[in-house]
Amino acid sequence: MESKLAIVLISLALVYLNETTTATDVEPSLSFIKSSCATVTYPALCEESLSPFAKTIQNSQAKLAHTALVVSLKRSQSTQDYLNKLKRVKGLNPREQSAVGDCLEVVSDSLDRVRKSIKEFKTCERLKGQQFLWHMSNVQMWVSSALTNENTCMDGFGGQAMEGRIKTSVRAQIASVAHVTSNALALVNNFAQKHS
């Protein structure tokens, strides 16, 4: 009986030590994320969306910017899925149907640009000098145009006649994507500044 109790106590102690060590390992990364996120437009969202990746990011500006782009991509994908489902909802009036369709097109284009920027960013990490600047300017341009696209999405919902739950719902989705993309662009710009 005593040996079983000893084994249980040792097991609990090992679990506790493991959790404590893991938490301690992540703390510097969380501080790094927090201080980096203080420079973006939506710092709370930045921290919330990037903290789960603290182990991957560690204290790397490159990994931080790359992860922010991946978060933007995932958010864009879920918004695209949402708009695809919304387009098939019965009861949308023709103007709402058209606005949702236009928005879907714009979000799909943004998704493509963020995807390209992630691929290009990986190339940047290996480069220096003029080559780095050229590839990095591609990343910045694509993320910036993705952000512009996301903001354009709401244009089709203009006017009093378009007020209602569909517009509110789409706006919430688009704002969510636009905010993480804005943060990603700021972190990419920070990385570019420090690396060049």
From TrEMBL:
Molecular function as annotated in GO: pectinesterase inhibitor activity
Cleavable signal peptide: 1-23
Taxonomic superkingdom: Eukaryota
InterPro entries hit by this protein: Invertase/methylesterase_inhib, Pectinesterase_inhib_dom, PME_Inhibitor
Entry-linked CDD domains: PMEI-like_3
Keyword Plastid in annotation: no
Keywords, ordered alphabetically: Signal
Domain Pectinesterase inhibitor as annotated: residue spans: 28-187
UniProt KW Plastid keyword: no
Gene3D superfamilies found in the cross-reference section: Invertase/pectin methylesterase inhibitor family protein (1.20.140.40)
Name of this protein: Pectinesterase inhibitor domain-containing protein
Phylogenetic classification of the source organism: Eukaryota, Viridiplantae, Streptophyta, Embryophyta, Tracheophyta
